[in-house]
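Deviations from the work plan: none for this task. Representative record:
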Amino acid sequence: MSGSKVEIGAITPANLQQLRVLNVATLPVRYSDKFYNELLDIYDRDYLQFAFVNGFVVGGVCARIEDHPEMASKKRLYIMTLNVLAPYRRNGIASKLLDHIVKLAEKDENIQDIYLHVQTSNQVAKSFYERHNFEDKGIINDYYKRIDPPHCFLLVRNLRQES
Amino acid sequence: MAQAQGKLPKKEAEIFRTVVSCYETKQYKKGVKAADSILKKFPNSGETQAMKGLLLNCMGQKEEAYELVKLGLRNDVRSHVCWHVYGLLYRSDNNYKEAIKCYLNALRIDKDNQNILRDLSNLQIQMRDMAGFVTTRRRILEGRPTLRASWVAFALANFAVKEYDVAYDAISKYYETSTEQVEPYEESEFYLFQNLCLEKAGKYDDAIAHLEKERAKIVDVLSWRVKKGQLFLLTGRFAEARTHWEGLVREQPENYRYHNLLQAALLELSGDALQRALGMKRLELVSTKIALSAEQKTLLLDYYTAHAVAKSRAFERIRLFLLQGTAEFEAALEAVIRSYTTSGIPSLCQDIMALVVVPSTQATETALLVHPSDAFDIARHPTVQLALQITARLLATFASAEATAAAGGSALSASAELWLWFLQAHLQWKSGALTAAMDSIERAIAHTPTALDMYTFKAKLFKAQGNFRAAAECMDQCRALDLQDRYLNNKATKYFLRNDDYEAGSATIAMFTKHDSEGDVQKTLYDLQCSWYELEVADCFARQHKWALALKRLAGIRQHFLDQYDDIFDFHSYCFRKTTLRAYVDELSALDTSFGHKRYQRALQAAVKIYLHLLDAPEDVDGLGHLSAADRKKERAKVKKQREREAAERARQREEKEREREAAASGNKKDAADEKEDKKEDADPYGDAYVTNKDFLQEAHTWCQSLFQFHAPPVHGLPDHDGDLLATCSAETLALVAEVQIRRGKYLKALRALSTAFDRVQGGQTVHADVFLVLLKLAWKMKNKKLGTAHALLPPIVKAEVARLLQRATQTALATWLQPLTPSSASSSSGAAPQWRDVSYEQVAELVQHLRTHFAAAPFTEAVVTFAQSLYPQGKAFAVAEDPATTAAAAAAAAVASASVETLADSA
């Protein structure tokens, strides 16, 4: 972005509350206290990152490694949240965050693919992921409980060539 | 240590020498044993008793030590050893005054004892007894002319009493007589000190010649150059001065000291203006501090435009300041705002406020400029108004996100919008528009809710509005966003304390205090001399009428300053052996004004206010003065029981720890640590010692005297220290000093403090409200016929002076304070929202308090209170539940006060 550098930095116990502020400002879904309390303890911290501009958090990504449902002993990466504060969008910050975790995942040979859910009303997000080589694998009906519309797209990006 | 006189037989005299050497080598136990062996045979040997006392003192047995030393002195009053020991004993307790007396007695018996002379000279410089110091150092020099320290200290002593020629010659003589090898740096310092002597003596041309002559020997080249530049100015050699300072500025373009004197050279300042330029501190400059003429400003502006140094912030800022009032200013200011907000520099508002100056109200020979502290003046300053316009204009460009995108690269970055809101909020706050500022900061938080600085400022706004609870909550919320930030932690602590929540405050600061799990956080903070915290805690307790606890904290702060003063004691003789005399001279003068430090002044004010309150309402000593006598008795019984319970609980915990320790202890080593632990226990957890059986007036007086206690009476021909020290005090302190003196019946001293406050303000200006009110009291006391003889004894000049000050104050005071408070006059200013002269809730609350106490019957009082309440709707209520008795008393006092104003003003 013009004039200011974007830096990626870890989410830590000391700045964890900023994730809550970021999520409240940008996501329709409200996460429970439990989510924040557990986050840093139960997930790999490499996949929990903030984007900083001029020293302030303006975006973040939270992803977790899961067992692959179809391939025994293999893993996949699930992106729980990827968000940027509204005034800072269209500056490549989300791409930078996504690239950061994609590169990490590519290095881990166990991870086969990356997937996530996007609310069906969020066309901007959907096209963002499609630009980043995610494929639309169809709609899951009634995925969300408390927000409208409750449906979502399932988006997947394959990291490995089929052998 | 001196030898024993021939009173003891040879064998015992031998042992006595062992005792002395044991003291010198810190073998205290062995020394006591040896002393006992002499005392067995000669139980009345005074010198042995004294020495034993001194040894016991070193082992912590103070009472026995004093008894033994006094006993020894009785047995052998003609012994210089006994007097010397007595002096050492006092010195170890930092009782310099008594120690000096003892040493002088010792010297009467043993005239040229070098040890005693040396110890005495250290005490004299510590007490700033300069005349005594010079005499003692002369005697030392006569006795030990070959030692360098003798010459150095002698030179220094003469420098201190302004005998600069003697000081200069002493250094020269030392060189002539000494064959000692001197390090190049030490030699360099000697010459620079000599040069300082010439300068102080006013021999500027000689000083320049001296610098030229000794150039090769001076290794501190920068000091040499700076000094030469100053001397060029002092001798009026402006062309050379200009070239000289230009050279230094080119090398260090950010050094404001160099810019300052370059400006003095460019403007060819002399006399008082030049002295002011030379005395400027930190970032002060001739251009920002002295009211220059239009021609002078143009001259400087042309210079800074023609000689601009790329990327130098100092050049940029100085030029921007000078551009004010020209057509170029707006574009320049906008460029700065754009660049700073894009880089996200939080201090932009401070940079803009540095441009905001108004003529000073101080009476000075050279007209000065000051930064206004009053929102009324700030809001009307054209630079502030312009900055607000530019900010609003730039913010408008963000109104539509698409417009920003369309503008492409030239648009300000997203974070610039955040900092523009932040800047706008600050400018509005400085202008006294608190509601607008709150709106702006809310916009900033909506823009970037993770920006910590926004929350700290929002909390500050809540505080300014008097909403301390919201301020504390907001600051704590901000603290939670970054748990590693000590600054946020400290701020949250302070805001909790402002909200009278001591529990939350002390718990918050404890998160960052390093201490073992059993350690006492408050003790740790005391050891760290964390005086900002102690002050806030004291104020917090005082607001809750916990006087004793507040006084305890304030006494702690006083101790920090006393400790600092005591710490320097050991450095005197060190400095005499070294040659860094210039640094030593600076340190001494810094210490001379250390009690003028704002933290000390605040502590003093708080303590004196409490003691004065207790003097008026002794029944409120435990904060229960508002109750009826019967209820108070009941409540006191309750408190007593509660404390007994707490003491039992502490004892129980102590025992528990003891048991744990015993269980855990494997070796004997732990015993020492345990003993220490026990000593840590606070003997006075409720601070009772500060109020029980105390003469409150005496305590208040002691606090006031602490400003002067380390100063011997003024030496003839030297500046008067008391006067100097009064000058370092704030107006509030001076008012309190005067109030205490009035109550002690010392009207002349009271008048002196008040005059010092009056001397600072110019003709049409108002003195501080506190000063005025105390003056009223003084005037009334002096009118009161009941004073009888005391009144008659007052010199007529005092009465005349009081009348004069009173007339001067009344002409402007009430009108100036009260006029902006009335809604009609506030809203008359160009139809804008009502403006307040001062945004601080605390100050408004204080003023309301004053009005209530002293002008309760006056018609304007309630109008003012209503208006104040409307300004701070969320603030704590200004209305206080008063019992009818005090209201009536206040009304009576007010009638008296206003009567005295009229009569005295008329009679003057």
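Strands of chain B lie at 358-359, 369-370.
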